[in-house]
Structure formats: structure tokens, C-alpha cells
Amino acid sequence: MTQFIFTFLNGITLAGLYFLVASGLTLIFGLMRVINLAHGAFYLLAGYVSWTVADKTDNWFYGAVAGALTLGVFGTLVYVLLLRKFQYEELRVALITLGVSLVLAQAMLAIFGGEYYQTNIPDSLANAIPVPGLGLSYPFFRIFVLILAILVAIGLWAFISKTRYGAIIRAGVDDTTMVSALGINVQAVFIWIFFLGSLLVGFAGAVGATTNSFGMGTDGDYLLFSLQVVIIGGLGSVGGVAIGSFLVGVIGQFAVGYFPTYAGIITFTMLILVLAFRPQGILGRKQ
Amino acid sequence: MTRTRIMYVVIIALALAFPYITPDPDFWVSSGGTRALWLGVAALSMSFLNRNLGLMSLGQLFFSGVTGYIVAISSVYHNVKFGTSVPLAIVAGTLSGVIIGYIALKTKGVYFFMLTLAVSLGLYAFANQAQEITHGHTGINSIPSPIIFGMDFAYVKPLYYLFLAIAVVLFSLCKFLEGTSFGIALKGVRDNEDRMISMGYRTMPLKMIAFVFSSFIASIAGVMGVFYVTNISPDSVGLLRSIDLLVIVVVGGATYLGGAFVGAALIAVFEAIIQDFTQYYIAATGILFIVVLMLAPQGLMGIAAQIRARRSNKVGA
Q1: Residue of B245, B207, B80, B243 lying closest to B146 (CA atoms)
Q2: Which residues partner with A138 through β-bridges?
Q3: What DSSP letter does each residue of A195-212 carry, written as one string?
Q4: What are the distances in angstroms from CA A215 to CA A188, A221, B4?
Q5: What is the pLDDT, as a whole number, of residue B315?
Q6: Partner residue opposite B118 with nearest CB, options A85, A96, A227
Q7: Measured between alpha carbons, how far is B293 from B271 in angstroms, rounded to an integer?
């Protein structure tokens, strides 16, 4: 029973992290049809940046802000310099971002080496909270990650479906020419979206660098998690990412806890099953 | 037509003579020639799909990996003879293409690309975790070389000629298929699936056959990989390997069958030259890849056509 509850807690808090990671990917894709396969490398870069800053300033929050902002600016630069010209050629853009991830991974390896790092949990969040009925406690920071994910989910949903800017973005995706004709600078909107999406993955990288150790190869792992999450949940939908994160996080943790040998296969079978019945993902719009 | 035929003859003659005309044959036959043929066959399975169905797959290493692991495990741990294990493994790899194809072919474009990427990453994760079966990160090492009719393929030249024969046969098979009515129907599906459906074609079986055929080629490449590298580990099916293949296909020219081999030769030579500076290899390929994608999306094979098109555009203007 104890193992069951802890596995569930691990799963759902990990789902929170997955949500933070994948929401940037789905935001950019959903609104711009641009799939960023350097997403895992972005996550890892944010981990290194936030770790370095947190280590130097001895303040976790500075690290998180630095990670998020660095990636926001970096992602925007990648978009403006490499992707914007081919924005409507989906596959070409995906391939270019894959090239970016190669270069980034190599550069990070050259700078930070092959060791693994983990950012220290800030003292104010380092306490453990008791799990009712078990007499055991659970690290509060992981719960904090889940709360952050829920806040980001609500914020994103409200931003996209309730604000004027969200309306402009949605309209810009459906009919760029028409929105431009209304006097709105769609190019600027797209840049902001890319900034926001990269900012989110930067923030996720800072948070993930604290809950899990990271280093060479983490980029590939998180690219896989994000792809699983968005494929299962449905690309381009914030709700879909939430469902996808929950399934991949919780089922993945139970698989690792109870059937470690086949953990990879179990998550993978789930992905295959979802796609066999709903190729567009659980909440995805039909292609 | 005759011009291309002469070109094929010249290329095959050069490939046959390669071990005798290259400087430092001990190094270049294996690290250049044999390696390029192996990577070329693996890339051919991608090119075939892209050219005939317009689908770019990153899942080909899944089939290579399934086949390679079956051959490696059965020969190293169960003393199964290659005469049994290789055909069975190729059948298994090809059949796994039926399952993956059934699901992946429901998607298109970038979705297909992502799904097949997830498929190969899934095998990577499994190979890493299922230590009892795959020996995890260490992988399976010192796989013996095949001996066919008393000829030991541990030697460099026999392996090179074996791979050359496989490459020529598979390339010709692809060319042949493209010329049949099946191949022409495939191009119809690629260009306008809805119209093919309304003309009465059942497009899913057509796409399935093409996909399974490409997984057959990838399975053969998996066996070639086991014999060439003599070990298999999760890294053999990892993201970097998949990207390597993608770079080969794109740099060579993704819409040309020959592009797979042009790209593979280029990458093999590039790898061999840069191997003293391995730490820069991946970044260098990444940059090459981005530059090709931005400036010459048709790859090396397409550069001539691209220049011609630009010139005639200028004349037209």
C-alpha cells in the first residue's frame, strides 16, 4: 500500500513536470504548426543555465528566472534566424530544429562535460510534508512542481481562450492574411509565441533540474517524454497535454516501480493503443 | 536512358575496383566503403518511403534494431547458426513493420515523422531497461562473423563485396518496384490520396506494402550492421544514429534513391576524416545538415536540377 501511494505521488508530480516541459512544445505547434525537435536540448540547456546561476548566486529563484529568460531569448533567435523563412514547410522546420539539437547537445557536452548535475532545492521549499494515514512524509518540492503545473495550465488556458491577445493568436493561426489585413502584425505575434513557448521549456528545465539529475542524454529522454505526451494527448491542445502528462507520468511510474524491465514497452504500448483508436491523440483536432 | 545506364555501369565498375584503387585499402575499404554501403542500405529504406509515399520516417532503426538484436542474442547466447537466425530475424523485423505501419500510416507529414521517431526512441528505452534480454547499456559484444561456403567474412574485402552485392540487389529491386503498376499507384497516393480513393483504389494496402517493404530493407541493414560493427547496444538504435541516417538521406537528396548512397559515402568519408576530432563530429554534421536544409533542400543529387531551375527562371524573367 505504501509503495502504491508513493508510486502514485511520484507519478502525479512527475506528470506536473512533464506538463511544464510539453506545454511549450504544444503551444508553439498548436498555434504555429511548428514542431520544435530541439525541445529536449532546450530543456537541458535551461537545466545547465539555471544550475550555474543558482550555484553562483546561491538563490534557486534567480536560477529559474535565468533559465527561463535565456531560453526565451535563445528560442526566439532560433525562430527568427533559422525557421521563420520556412514556417509553412512543417517537415523542413522539424528537420532544421533537429540539426539545432545536434549542435546544441555537442556544445553543452563540450562546456559541461559528461558529469551529471542537480540543482539544490531552495531552503524555503525543502521541507517534507506528512502523508495522511501512513506516518511517512513526502518532499514538498515535488508537490510544489505539481502546483506550478496546475497554475501554468490555468494561466495558459485563460490566456489563449479568454484574452484579446489569445483571440489574436488563434485568429492569426487560422487565417494569417485576414488578421494582417485588420492591421495586426502577425509576424510579431508569432515571435511572442515562440518566446513564450521557449520561456516555458526554460522554466521547466530549471524545475526539472532540481527534481531530477541531468546531464548528457537528458535531452533525448525529455524529447521522448514530450513527444509521448503530445502524441497521446493530441498536438496543440493544452488540455491534451494535461491528460497526456498524467497518463505518461503515472503509468510510467507504476511501470518502473512494478515491472522495471518492461517500463519502456508499457508506456510505448499505451501510445500505440491510443493512436490505433485516435490517430490525432485524445484531445487533438482531426488533421 | 542510355546515359543513366552508362552511369550505372561506371559506378558499379568503380565500386568493384574500389578495394584495389584506393590508397591505404586496409583503412578505407572498411571505414569508407563497407560502412557507406551499410549506412546506404539503411538510408535507402528511408529514401524509398520518402520518394514513393512522401513520408519521412525516423523509425527505420526500429526494424534494424529488432533484427540486429535477434541475430546477436541468438548467435551469442543460444548458439543458433546464422543460416537460421538471419532469415528468421529478417522475417521478424519485416513483420514488425506490419504493426508499426498499421498505426503510423494513419498519420501524415510531421505527425508521421514524430510517431516514427517515438517508435525508435521506444526501442532505445527498452534496450536500455530490459537488461536480462539486451544486457542494457553494455549491449552484446563480439558477435562472430558469418562463414558462407567456407569464405570468412571477418576479412575486409569479402565483407565489402557481400555488402556491395546486397546494395546493388536492393537498389535494383526498388527501381524495379517503382516501374511496376504498383509503384505508379504509390506515386498517385503520394500526390493525391483522395483522388486515388475516388478512382477506386484501396490506398491503405498500397501504403502498407510500401512501408513493410521499407522495413524489410531496414531489417537487412540491421543484419549488415551486426556483421560490420560486431556488436549491438542501445546506442545502435539511439536518437543520434537515427539522426545520422536522416542527415545521410537529406544531404544526399531525399527524393532520389541514389541519394542514400551518395549521402552515406559522403558521411562515411567525413566521419573517417574527422575521427581524430570526434568531439566536433556531431556539431559539424548538425551544421552541415542545417546548411543543406536551408540552401539546398533537394540535397547533393538535386543541386544540378536546382541550378538549372534557377537559370531557366532568370531566362524566363
Answers
A1: B80
A2: A129
A3: HHHHHHHHHHHHHHHHHS
A4: 34, 11, 50
A5: 58
A6: A227
A7: 20
All 3 cell numbers of residue B283? 556539431
Q: Which residue has the cell 539539437?
A: A101
When CB atoms are compared, the residue of B238, B240, B279 closest to A110 is: B279
Question: At A139, which helix (H) or strand (E)?
Answer: strand A136-139
Taking chain A (287 residues) in runs of 10, the rounded mean pLDDT of each run is 87 94 88 87 96 93 95 95 86 89 90 89 83 80 93 91 85 80 86 93 95 88 88 84 93 87 78 78 73
Residues in A touching B128 (Cβ below 8 Å): 264
Task: Compute the average pLDDT of residues B274-286.
Answer: 76
3-state secondary structure at position B148: strand
Q: Which of B57, B131, B239 to mutate to test the interface with A (most CBs of A within 10 A)?
A: B239
B129 touches chain A (CB under 8 A): yes
CB A216 within 8 A of CB A106: no
High-pLDDT (> 90) share of chain B, %: 38
A279, B107 contact by CB (below 8 A):
yes
d(CA B266, CA B268): 6
What is the DSSP annotation of A176-193? HHHHHHTT--HHHHHHHH
- What the block records as the C-alpha cell of A168 is 489574436
CB proximity list for A185: less than 8 A, separation 6 or greater: none
ipTM of the prediction = 0.81
Range among B21-25, B79-83, B91-95 with highest mean pLDDT value: B91-95
CB contact under 8 A, B282 and A260: no
| Dihedral over Cα of A224, A226, A232, A235: its sign | negative
B147: DSSP letter = E
Which residue has 510539453 as its cell numbers? A22
From chain B, the residues in CB contact with A38 under 8 A are none
CB B62 within 8 A of CB B241: no
Q: Which amino acid is at A233?
A: G
- The closest alpha carbon to B129, from A257, A146, A145, A283, belongs to A257
DSSP-derived secondary structure for B251-297: HH-TT-TTHHHHHHHHHHHHHHHHGGGHHHHHHHHHHHHHHHHHH-T
Dist CA B56 CA B242 (whole Å): 12
**A207 CB neighbour count, 10 Å cutoff:** 27
Which amino acid is residue B105, in one-letter code? L
The SS3 call for residue B151 is: strand
